[in-house]
Amino acid sequence: MAAVSLSVSTVKPLGDRVFVKVSASEKRPRRLYFPDTAKEKPQVGEVVALGAGKRNDDGSRQELEVKVGDLLLYSKYAGTDVKLGTEEYVLLSEKDILAMVG
Question: Which keywords, in A-to-Z order, does the entry hold?
Fold first, then answer.
């Protein structure tokens, strides 16, 4: 089996999934209040890659509401955590996104 080298540019989310770079707590927007319990696991991140969108019953794609570069607030235990080098990412379904920030 050949070794696969993962980087942000090689990760292509499928369907309605969104690949998000997790923001360090000190980079969080100051205008948002996060209770102490939310500081355990970051819930804010920047979109770095998108899937093509959810497939509808008729075969067409439903466009995602977010775009690369958007800052998001997402569910605390949502998605799959991915570490590439020293950076942390999370692969989310669009339904796990709570809000766009900024």
Answer: Chaperone, Cytoplasm
Rounded-to-integer distance, Cα 10 and Cα 15, Å: 16
| Rounded Cα gap, residues 1 and 27, in angstroms | 39
Q: What is the DSSP string of 9-75?
A: GG----TTEEEEEEPPGGGS-TTS---GGGGSS--EEEEEEE-S-EEPTTSPEEPPS--TT-EEEE-
Q: Would you say 73 and 96 are in contact if contact means Cβ atoms under 8 Å apart?
A: no
Query: Rounded to an integer, what is the distance from CA 98 to the centroid of its chain?
Result: 11
- Give me 54's structure tokens: 């959810």
Q: Which CATH architecture has domain 8-101?
A: Roll (2.30)
Q: How far apart are CA 77 and CA 97, in angstroms?
A: 11
* Stated pTM of the model: 0.78
Q: Which residue has the tokens 């570490």?
A: 83
pLDDT digits (tens, 9 = 90+) for 6-41: 788 888 999 999 999 998 754 445 566 666 655 566
